[in-house]
Write a structure and sequence with these properties.
A divalent metal cation binds at residues 16-17, 108. Keywords: Cytoplasm, Endonuclease, Hydrolase, Manganese, Metal-binding, Nuclease. Its EC number is 3.1.26.4. Belongs to the RNase HII family. It comes from Sphingobacterium suaedae. The protein is of the alpha/beta class. It folds into two domains: 12-151, 2-Layer Sandwich (Nucleotidyltransferase, domain 5); 154-197, no CATH class. The chain contains six helices and five strands. Strands 3-2-1-4-5 form a five-stranded mixed β-sheet, with helices on both faces. The longest helix is centred in the last third of the chain and has 22 residues, at 131-152.
Length: 198
């Protein structure tokens, strides 16, 4: 069972991103605030859930959250400011869109760029520990997957319906054969030997 909050004194938003390791498409981020004492036994890190389960949970999160927001940063912007800064920017943009101001932020991972004057806590594997981060991971992932499915129609040879822009062998080979699309991140090296891990 995931924990409701990291601290209980302030209104807390959980943040996470999706698409950081992709060759193509934007990076998406979400921020979620749940009511005090919120419980949901079905919520978990989006990577641990099937696509079907993520899509079932999305409307539940959106209905039961006190507030939520989803934002993205384009491939072009990623190339300009780098993926780490783009991830922070996407999370900041999501926080900007919240109608309820967060007084405390918990973020999945080990690094975050401070948002305004709001205190934050980075939590490694936080999407498997806290409900709001898990919910943010689900929203970021499902909205990004939908975006990639929509643009996949115009670029079928990259197999984005299956890989969502991640560097699978088929995706890398398509880039080597057909070149890059307007949605590709030009600063990401397709032939990087590390990508053999995928």
């Amino acid at each position: 069972m995931l924990l409701s909050t990291f601290q209980s004194e302030h209104i807390e938003a959980g943040c996470d991103e999706a698409g950081r390791g992709c060759l193509a498409g934007p990076v998406f981020a979400a921020a979620v605030i749940f009511p005090p004492g919120y419980c949901n036994a079905l919520l978990n890190d989006s990577k641990q859930l099937s696509e079907k389960k993520r899509m079932e949970l999305r409307p539940i999160i959106e209905q039961e959250a006190l507030d939520y927001a989803v934002a993205s940063v384009s491939a072009e912007e990623i190339d300009r400011i780098n993926i780490l800064n783009a991830s922070y920017l996407a999370m900041h943009k999501a926080l900007d869109q919240l109608k309820t101001r967060a007084a405390y932020i918990i973020v999945d991972g080990n690094r975050f760029k401070s948002y305004q004057d709001v205190p934050h806590q980075c939590i490694v594997k936080g999407d498997g520990k806290y409900l709001s981060i898990a919910a943010a991971s689900i929203l970021a992932k499902t909205y990004r997957d939908e975006y990639m499915d929509n643009i996949a129609k115009d670029f079928p040879h990259y197999d984005w319906l299956s890989n969502k822009g991640y560097p699978t062998i088929k995706h890398r080979n398509a880039v080597l054969s057909f070149g890059i699309s307007p949605h590709h991140r030009r600063t990401f090296r397709v032939t990087d030997p590390q990508l053999k891990l995928f």
